[in-house]
Structures are given as C-alpha cells and as structure tokens.
C-alpha cells in the first residue's frame, strides 16, 4: 500500500504548484550493483542526502530551495554484467538532464544537479554546458571526497552504515579489486567491472563504520556547498 506523502518544505514532491519556487536541486544517482553487501540504490541515496543538505543550508539563510525526486537511473553500462543493474546510457542520460533543465527552468530561479554516480559525468557535463549556452542558470556538483575508494569499498559502505544501516549486509562484506583505478581502468572500460572484480567491489569495505560515514557525508556536503556558493 502506498505510503502517505509527508509534507516537507524541502521536498518538491510535497509542494503544490503555488508553493514550488526558488532553487531546484536535482539529485542524480543510478540503479547498479554495489557488491554483495550494498543495495543497488547507493548512488541515489548519497546524492539525495547531499541534495537535502544543500537545501537545509540555503534554508538556514532564508533562501527557498527544494529537492526534486531523485533520478535513480544513470549511465551504468560498466556494471551490466551484474543482475539488478539498469542503465539508460550516456546519450539518454544527457537528453533527460537537458529536458529536466529546460522544463524546470521555466519556474526555478536556479537549477543545481547533484551527481552521485561517476558514470553520469560525461552526460551531465555535456547537458549542463548545453543548458548554460541556452542562457539558463544551471550547474552541477559531485559527491566525492579526496582519498575515497572507487566503488562499494570502505567509503560508500561507511556512508550507507550511517544513512541506511539496515540496508547493509555486513556479513557479506569482502574486499574486491584493490589496485589503483588508473591501473585497471583500460580493462574496466573495455570489458566492464566484472572483468576486474568478480564480486563487483573496487576497494575494501572491511573496517567501514557509521561514524566514518557521518564524517565523509559531512565532507561531501561541505564541498558541494562551497562549489555552489562559488
């Protein structure tokens, strides 16, 4: 049975057309494998959390900002050898972001895309460039922190232990491919993640903690805030 919609000043979906205004923050994620221990929604959950944080920071300054429903599909072709992954590809992703920007740009005073998935970067950068060339106030920010591992390792596992501990299969945690990303990237790009890591993990999730995840998420929020303020 559908859950009732709880009114929230920071969530676009709970507004009516008369109250939807200000800055629109659009979280972009993916539906893709994150090893045997993390849910398919990792990137979407992280992007949504960073977007909510931006809305709160703007709100504390008296600036209206709302968070759009997260776009949970992205360009995830490198993960398609794993069940559960659904990728729409770079071309479709670029088109979707452009159309969101053009449509929301009719009423939003500014649009900020918050990207939680590395595979979306190409499509997002091209879409934002196109929207800005059309004269729209649009920009994008990522959800990264210096020193983080590549995929489903300690970084993302720690953040999920903080954000959604019930969704982490702690007993299924196991190291994956731990070589530097630049060393494995050519094979990964040619044949996908499964060719370099049979369990889908790029990194080592063991040792992850909710406390570390809270600090990492705070750092992501600080970095995103500094980027949009500039």
Core attributes:
single chain; 230 residues; alpha/beta; Rossmann fold; 4-stranded parallel beta sheet; 6 helices; 4 strands; 9% strand
Give a written overview of the molecule.
The chain is α/β, with parallel strands linked by helices and 230 residues long. It has one domain (12-225): Creatininase (Rossmann fold), CATH 3.40.50.10310. It has six helices and four strands, in the order E-H-E-H-E-H-E-H-H-H. A four-stranded parallel beta sheet has the order 2-1-3-4, with helices on both faces. Helix 3 (121-133) links the parallel strand 3 and strand 4 (138-142). Helix 2 packs parallel to helix 3. The N and C termini lie far apart (44 Å). 44% of the residues are buried.
Question: How is the secondary structure organized here?
Answer:
Blueprint: E1 23-28, H1 42-60, E2 65-67, H2 89-104, E3 110-115, H3 121-133, E4 138-142, H4 154-163, H5 181-191, H6 210-229
Helix pairs in contact: 1-4, 1-6, 2-3, 4-6
Alpha-carbon distance between the two ends: 44 Å
CATH C-level: Alpha Beta
Helices and strands: which structural class?
alpha/beta
User: What is the overall shape?
Assistant: globular
- The beta-strand count equals 4
Radius of gyration: 18 Å
Q: Helicity, in percent?
A: 25-40%
CATH topology: Rossmann fold
Major sheet summary line: 4 strands, parallel
Mean pLDDT: 95
